[in-house]
Amino acid sequence: MTRSKKERLDAVAPMLEGKVLDTRRMVDALHAVLDPHDRVALEGNNQKQADFLSRSLALVDPARVHDLHMVMSCLTRPEHLDIFEAGIATEADFAYAGAQSLRVAQAISDGTLRVGAIHTYLELYARMFLDLAPRVALVAADKADRDGNLYTGANTEETPTVVESTAFRGGIVIAQVNELVDSGELPRVDIPGSWVDLVVRADRPYHLEALFTRDPRKITDVQVLMAMIAIRGVYERHQVTSLNHGIGFDTAAIELLLPTYAESLGLKGKICLDWVLNPHPTLIPAIESGWVRSIMPFGGELGMNDYVNARPDIFPVGPDGTMRSNRMAAQAAGLYATDMFIGSTLQIDAEGNSSTVTDGRISGFGGAPNLGSDPRGRRHSSPAWLNLAECEGARGRKLIVQTVQTYGAKGVPHFVESLDAVEVGRKAGFATTPVMIYGNDITHLVTEEGVAYLYKARDREERRAAVAWAAGATPLGLSRDRSKDEQLRRDGVVASPEDLGVRRVDARRSLLAARSIEDLVEWSGGLYDPPSQFRSW
Amino acid sequence: MTRSKKERLDAVAPMLEGKVLDTRRMVDALHAVLDPHDRVALEGNNQKQADFLSRSLALVDPARVHDLHMVMSCLTRPEHLDIFEAGIATEADFAYAGAQSLRVAQAISDGTLRVGAIHTYLELYARMFLDLAPRVALVAADKADRDGNLYTGANTEETPTVVESTAFRGGIVIAQVNELVDSGELPRVDIPGSWVDLVVRADRPYHLEALFTRDPRKITDVQVLMAMIAIRGVYERHQVTSLNHGIGFDTAAIELLLPTYAESLGLKGKICLDWVLNPHPTLIPAIESGWVRSIMPFGGELGMNDYVNARPDIFPVGPDGTMRSNRMAAQAAGLYATDMFIGSTLQIDAEGNSSTVTDGRISGFGGAPNLGSDPRGRRHSSPAWLNLAECEGARGRKLIVQTVQTYGAKGVPHFVESLDAVEVGRKAGFATTPVMIYGNDITHLVTEEGVAYLYKARDREERRAAVAWAAGATPLGLSRDRSKDEQLRRDGVVASPEDLGVRRVDARRSLLAARSIEDLVEWSGGLYDPPSQFRSW
């Protein structure tokens, strides 16, 4: 029998001054508030981490607090796994594992971590409003006032969603903040104090991961080639105006070719106007060259705040002059308001199924399954969307593009007969294989061989042939019947760089609008302030 | 060239006391704030209407304010169309038209209303965060304090979404409220004052539509039969635990059979636990009988507040003791967190495409396309979802159920060879036919003939045969090759009441847990306070 919210708040009340908890009493407060088997939301975003609260949670006494059911979008910090090893928590519903993917697989195998399900972000938030409402939420904010009002600014991310789904289900909301200020001293309110029960100043500012920063120095000539292929064979061909770019160097290369290569093709103003995207530093040259009309961000990006705040015409900036992101709204926009998702992957099988689960790692899905899916409820049309319609008058289709080099850095082919995910899923006892994007959802596949227009394949056999064609010199690619290649090209199911008017010899890094982080800083007029690990000067 | 936010606020400043506008200056304030061609969000929810603001907007001088581009979920009040006839507005992006559906069709035909697109709600909200951000938002709240903080309570609906998408894109937010209170006197804050520019006390409380109230007296024996068929042939067979019920008497009948018929089948605790649903009065008996675990509502329902607030174990009730709804979160939950959507329709064609567009009416889509779609990004599994998987290990599928009597009240068949929507869409110049739910998205069709398991059809021909079977004695149904019926039944593609163990003679109104509004009030312990038009006593 778990206690009511009132009983829990009564237990912690002696430690509080109003809603404010002393930093040193954090572990005591968790003991007072938590019951065994509670469903607990712990904010571990893609970027912002409630790390004071997660480190404190790892210090509770497992004899008093145990068997928690964690609901968290990301299992990304070491202590996120420590709590399972200690028995403080035993079950998790999550979306992404990232750096902890190996430990997650191990913990599942050891039986210390029971997986409810691995979700895509929007799916997890959806369930938090219905059957996964948290009893206690542990979140992070930039500032709080003494009434519990929170300022979350550029890194608002998922905080309002986690707080709302908890506060209106009789749950308790605890926020760690970087700074406590007096009433009325917040730049603005992002989350009303009436939804928040406890605020505590963290021992140090919350950890922020520079997840979407890509150093242009590391972009290769092959990635430039693939970016050119994508621009001609996908963006230009379908006149894609609204889109989401997944994380990685492949899409960073595309961003950096807009003001150069794409501009030389006369595409400015015709493609890439509206973006659902974190503030990618590599998009600065395109923004400054007038390519971009609007950006809706999932979160902030370390070092980008001054630049973003100076462009309220592009980013969502509040009356106070600072950005507000919103992970749930951006995921909805990425699902329903964009014509294209393009992202990199690690493995693609003969059917076109793609996954980032490899080598026994369970990395989760993040936003890709949602962003990389055709919303069957969509009813507005656009030229790009209609371009994929099966016939006149029929509904269109979202472009779901996967881009991948045929071989990885260590000579490991990215194309395989069967995904590692099949074996990983079997071992973990999942009901379905942890596929990130299913082959029959993918419409285009881009490799250095060219574009496979999978949506044009007439049947499963032709689809497999197109995947194998894109797989080039990998074993999967070499095993194909090459006598069919010419027919595939004539039918427009595949297109080589030559078919698209892309000259391989032009694919040079010198085409990139910025070739280093310093270049990006210069494009930003000095407003971009890169994190130290990206500074070479 | 439109003015900046600052210029507009400066123009209205002389009329304000802080953020508070005098009720009598509303039209003047709109003249001061609006520019021609502005994109304007006007809150016309399914239920809550910003009617003081819409009536005021209809009074502006079209010489000064004209060609507005309206972004609004519902075109439901007369003045919503008046502004187009007056030239104050010329374009609309919307989701639902309801009572104004005939005038909408007329205005499109006359050329006074240009349709951007007709959306499903979540799709429209998604675009408001990207390419349809409003310059000015006109919304409604229960209460505001003098700092602009808003209390929206049970009818929070879409207000936070509209406000956020405007306030963080340099737009101006104007809220009409029923009551102005002093700072600190709100029950709770639903929307922070830092997002709101102007508040004004409305001339009368906002209009609220009792859209989801269905009088059990009007439920027929045939609807009871269809409800029994649905419970046995769909809910029980697939063990559906999470679901959304569309509006109407068909689903109200199902709700009222849970504590009687379904209970007699031993289904309590096995089906219908978690609901995405407005507070339907007809669900009270199931809630009071312990059938329901949780409900996530899109909005409130007139007369249901006291009952809802007394069940914080079921509904999202805040620390202040009143409910908060959230249309965007509920639509996301309906998309990603439920296993089934079941709703009524008006027309179904031979392919299973369904539409509520008939007789030249353009009624829009509302939430049905979103709720009635299989989210391809879903990655968590459940027994019901896996039950529809094509094979072992493959992903499952959401149940999309349409329920309809073969003939309508006036002897008009609901099954047709071709939807009226085709002609309506053609006349209006739409790029695609305004289909509410596409035939290849529907998994089950329920009529008084039984259940057609469309997801089991092996090809288009078998699918058409199953639709025609369900169409019974309508011309579409009679035109079928009846010699195939037996094979369809043997293959489990269709099932009659007899196949499902439903006795037609048992289908009586007496099975309903409540047979009148009075019965519902009694079930609620006197807490449900029905609107006067539903009172016969």
TrEMBL record, chains A, B:
Residues 359-379 are annotated as: Disordered. Pfam families: Mal_decarbox_Al (PF16957). This is Malonate decarboxylase subunit alpha. It comes from Rhodococcus daqingensis.
